[in-house]
Design goal:
mainly alpha; hpI Integrase, Chain A; three-stranded antiparallel β-sheet; two-stranded antiparallel sheet; 5 strands
């Protein structure tokens, strides 16, 4: 029997799991969310460049973390201006050439969440403008009394927001994200603001806790980096 004097595996690198590598590449190349400064810049641009309806739409998506189908199916009756709350319990679909308003399927997605004063103010201004346009004969009153509709009273196309967002990103050189990225952005900023995992999950109406945990892990890693930078700045004063 011969004695091996050198480990034959000394220079062998154990391959990492493929999904591990894919996830890292996605984080580097496909960041599907915006940071706080990007959100501020985006909303400042929409305020100046797009129709007021669209500015309020994007603001509501960002400030509530709602899905686009939920926002486009939202009736005025589900906004309580006195209590400062909004109820999401239905979503808009387009099927076989028709718009369908469908009740949310899961109990988690049926939710009542709070609204900040700025969002309530924007929604109230839009409500006044919508009523004024209708009374002036410029628009048609929609049958479903939804918050956001087209001039002829019909629901908005689901693809409209995707197209509008993509056009603004291209024009102003924003980091590329999808409409779903605004949902991710809301969750990330909630965690940065100190919200708990349970609070974020309930606000977003999401039953997949793993997805929420993935966002939480990403944010906490970022905050840890910020903590180190804060210490460095303090120690160098």
């Amino acid at each position: 029997m011969e004695i091996i004097v050198k480990n034959p595996l000394e220079h062998v690198t154990i391959p990492r799991q493929q999904n591990e590598m894919i996830n890292e590449e996605k984080e580097k190349d496909e960041r599907n969310y915006w940071k706080k400064d990007e959100i501020r810049k985006f909303l400042a641009i929409t305020k100046e460049e797009v129709a007021f309806r669209d500015h309020v739409l994007f603001h509501l998506l960002i400030y509530t973390g709602a899905r686009k189908g939920e926002v486009l199916a939202l009736p005025w009756d589900d906004i309580d201006f006195e209590a400062g709350s909004i109820r999401f319990n239905k979503t808009l679909f387009f099927h076989k050439g028709k718009f369908l308003f469908q009740t949310s399927k899961t109990k988690e997605s049926k939710r009542l969440i709070s609204l900040d004063d700025k969002t309530l103010s924007l929604l109230n201004k839009w409500r006044i403008r919508q009523n004024e346009a209708y009374l002036a004969g410029k628009t048609v009153l929609n049958d479903h009394k939804v918050v956001f509709d087209r001039d002829d009273g019909s629901p908005m196309r689901l693809a409209y927001l995707n197209e509008k967002l993509a056009a603004l990103i291209k024009k102003h050189g924003f980091h590329k994200i999808t409409i779903h990225g605004l949902w991710h952005t809301h969750a990330s900023l909630l965690f940065e603001a100190g919200a708990s995992i349970k609070e974020v999950q309930e606000r977003l109406g999401h039953s997949d806790i793993q997805m929420i945990m993935n966002i939480y892990t990403h944010v906490t890693d970022y905050l840890k980096e910020q903590t180190a930078e804060k210490f460095q700045r303090y120690i160098e004063l």
